[in-house]
# Entry
Amino acid sequence: MKREKNLHVLQAILEAKELLLESMVPKEAKIHFRQANKEVLIGIRALIDHRIMEMEHSAETGTSTSSSNDQTVQKINISDH
# Structure
């Protein structure tokens, strides 16, 4: 019950935000923000697609699914002179 009430309040807040933005933000800015949001989503989709391809490649080759950007740590001995 409490969760439903919280969701209802959150939905009301989001709707109020949209109404406020609708009345205050110029049309050109809205278009820019909508396009920026789309680009963020496209970027996230590209990351997901890349990870899926890595997983499929790993399954085919039988290798680890860890990211190809993993770095190894090398210990460097430092001696006082």
Observations:
- Residues 2-60 form one domain.
